[in-house]
Amino acid sequence: MQQIRQAIRQMIHATDDELDALLRGCSLRSYQRRELLSEAQQTPGEIFFINQGILRVIAADPSGTEHTVHFAMEHQFIADYSSFILRQPSVYALQALEPLEAVVMPRSAIEWGYAHLREGEKLGRLIAEYYFIYLDSRIKNLYARSPRERYDAIAAVFPNIHNRAPQHMIASYLGITPVHLSRLKKAGAGKF
Amino acid sequence: MQQIRQAIRQMIHATDDELDALLRGCSLRSYQRRELLSEAQQTPGEIFFINQGILRVIAADPSGTEHTVHFAMEHQFIADYSSFILRQPSVYALQALEPLEAVVMPRSAIEWGYAHLREGEKLGRLIAEYYFIYLDSRIKNLYARSPRERYDAIAAVFPNIHNRAPQHMIASYLGITPVHLSRLKKAGAGKF
DNA sequence: AGAAACCCTAAACATTTGTTATCGTTCTGC
DNA sequence: GCAGAACGATAACAAATGTTTAGGGTTTCT
């Protein structure tokens, strides 16, 4: 639980006692490759902090096609945060792409933090803000960049992604088909 | 300043005195049609709350093409929030599409609120969360819905948008060209 | 080790979407 | 009220991207 303490302390000031109490309400879990951390259609009851490993966030459209909407790696908080906040059935599923270890933060612990950590609400604000900034950058890229440019830029956001996720998931993340990504790679003087 | 008081009170509990003090640091401003509330490249120093009117958020890509990335209407908070948080030059410009009135909340007032409102941090968290939820729904739509479907759904998010924004801005928002939107309208048994 | 599943590439073809240009209409500013 | 700009529709053509199918190489599982 050392990594999450450090991550929290990068955002707020908190005593050891405060962190102990917060983390007492959390647990550590391991997941196998391809295992789901959380499924679509169920109301999410927790937020995850990834200690080790990589996962993808999957959205299924009405026709059943799956889209890889996000990746998340070590030292990131991740969840279907919208559904968590709204207490609605989730749209996203979270799937480990490697053996993965995560801190599971149940809603009870998070609410305890808001209420009892001196800077609990601030922590919540900062997490929401950082996550917001990430989504905003996604939208900027989707609007203002071509698939080719997005491909060239992806490794800056997710280091080593090309060795940690299969290409068809990367293609989906970029908003194109695997076939098309293969073409792009062939055509461009790809950097990778 | 009645509307913003109400909006804040939908999120947190605050006394009249608290709101008075917060709003003392804010100001009311009117903008003409097409006037910019804030420009790209400048570090944003404020957040806006729209009393009346509609605006769009514009992102310019490297080639200079402008994209309408968001709309915002009455009773919404709006800003280039990422740039505001990061204190970086903005990527977005905000442009009034109608004569518009907004409460201008400078950074000083916001920080005062975080520090002195009893539930200031919580307010910040909730604003970030709601804004986050909106962006998340944008991303879901961009991935899992066709342009046609996005067109059919837009009026649910922005009521009466078809009478308040020209079609080429709506097309840009949907991620397609005006010509293509015109085609879609002709083809589909459009609802509008 | 062997079978099965997975993954990437490739080619041919189909579809969607973009580009450019034109035209008539409607706003807008003077 | 007029002149110019903005706006939306349309057509012809071009480019980007998707679909389907096939093959061969890996990885995975037992």
In words, what does this structure look like?
- 2 copies of one chain form a homodimer.
- Chain A is an alpha+beta fold and 192 residues long.
- Chain A contains 9 helices and 8 strands.
- Chain A has helices at residues 2-9, 16-24, 81-86, 107-116, 120-144, 147-157, 161-164, 167-174, 178-187; strands spanning 27-31, 36-38, 46-52, 55-60, 66-72, 77-78, 92-96, 100-106.
- A 4-stranded antiparallel sheet of chain A has the order 1-8-3-6. In chain A, strands 2-7-4-5 form a 4-stranded antiparallel sheet.
- In chain A, β4 (55-60) and β5 form a beta hairpin.
- In chain A, α2 packs antiparallel against α4 (107-116) and α4 (107-116) crosses α5 (120-144).
- Chain A is elongated, with a radius of gyration of 18 Å.
- Chain A starts with a helix and ends in a 5-residue tail after the last helix.
- The A-B interface holds A 59-62, 65, 67, 69, 81-82, 85-86, 91, 114, 119, 121-122, 124-125, 128-129, 131-133, 135-140, 142-145, 175 and B 59-62, 65, 67, 69, 81-82, 85-86, 91, 114, 119, 121-122, 124-125, 128-129, 131-133, 135-140, 142-145, 175.
- Chain A binds a DNA duplex (30 and 30 nucleotides) through α9.
